[in-house]
């Protein structure tokens, strides 16, 4: 997820945002490489499976004919199975009629983050979810960007720690909160390869 230092109000043209197609796969794989360290990257097979099986659950941002950002999601029945799964096999929880939308990842080319494309993709996804009568909840299992700089705290303490301005200390958690999410819980072992966060994921929930 992109770094955010404060909340902004803005408008944007949703004509730049659409569902992905199979011919977007090379661009989506490039985004994965640019946005994630190797141990945390989603496999090409999983990305292809997402686009083939549930294209309506994802949005890409196209700028001047080039895909420069994407947000992935899936539908799940309950958050309970998230406690015993991990990011490598979480796609097995997808079910077309699931009442919960799980946001899986938000990738934007690093050199374009100043355009706030991540904000736009997330806002558009949340708007769409709010219009779907069968969507009861939107959640994500995110990670922390800066916990490695605050290991004097337990990670459970860190995810609720705020700065002098009353904002969540971690930029990624702050990004979610700025868009209406609340921090719900830790999910131990959700990203086993994420050494910076001791393998933990952070469950956040959006109000619709």
Question: What does the model show?
Answer:
- The structure is a single chain.
- Helices cover 23% and strands 22% of the residues.
- The protein has 208 residues and is α+β, with helices and mostly antiparallel strands.
- It has a seven-stranded mixed beta sheet with strand order 1-2-3-4-5-7-6.
- The longest helix has 15 residues, at 117-131.
- The model is unreliable at 1-12 (pLDDT under 50).
Furnish the topology, listing elements before pairings.
Layout: E1 17-18, H1 25-35, H2 44-53, E2 59-63, E3 66-76, E4 100-108, H3 117-131, E5 137-142, H4 155-158, H5 171-178, E6 181-187, E7 201-206
Parallel strand pairs: 4-5
Antiparallel strand pairs: 1-2, 2-3, 3-4, 5-7, 6-7
Briefly summarize what is shown.
Helices cover 23% and strands 22% of the residues. By secondary structure, it is of the alpha+beta class.
């Amino acid at each position: 997820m992109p770094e955010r230092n404060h909340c902004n109000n803005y408008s944007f043209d949703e004509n730049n945002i659409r569902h992905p197609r199979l011919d977007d796969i090379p661009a989506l794989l490039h985004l994965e490489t640019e946005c994630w360290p190797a141990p945390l990257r989603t496999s090409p097979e999983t990305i292809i499976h997402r686009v083939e099986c549930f294209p309506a659950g994802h949005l890409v941002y196209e700028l001047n004919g080039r895909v420069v950002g994407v947000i992935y999601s899936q539908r799940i029945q309950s958050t309970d199975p998230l406690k015993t799964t991990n990011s490598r096999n979480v796609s097995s929880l997808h079910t077309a009629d699931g009442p919960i939308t799980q946001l899986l990842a938000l990738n934007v080319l690093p050199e374009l983050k100043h355009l706030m494309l991540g904000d736009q993709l997330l806002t558009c996804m949340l708007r769409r979810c709010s219009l779907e009568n069968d969507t009861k909840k939107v959640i994500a299992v995110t990670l922390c960007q800066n916990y490695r700089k605050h290991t004097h705290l337990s990670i459970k303490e860190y995810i609720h720690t705020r700065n002098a301005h009353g904002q969540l200390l971690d930029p990624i958690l702050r990004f979610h909160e700025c868009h209406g999410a609340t921090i719900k819980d830790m999910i131990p072992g959700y990203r086993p390869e994420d050494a910076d966060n001791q393998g933990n994921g952070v469950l956040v929930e959006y109000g619709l």
